[in-house]
Amino acid sequence: MKTPCIIAGDINIDFVKYGVHHETADYVNNYLVNNFVTMIIMPSRVTANTATMIDHMYYYEGCNSKKKI
Prior knowledge:
single chain, alpha+beta, two-stranded antiparallel sheet, about 15% helix
């Protein structure tokens, strides 16, 4: 894919469970393998007893970037 892309959603998959829930890890890894970067890295819902990361936003820069490596 050459075009930059943003994927965003309020999805009930909690990133906080990445290390203990196989399906969550698979979901996140599918984005990473395809060069998408997660833009939200902190819990987006916090209460006195819990914290969850269910807001998702991914960015793909695309192949037409003018950035020099």
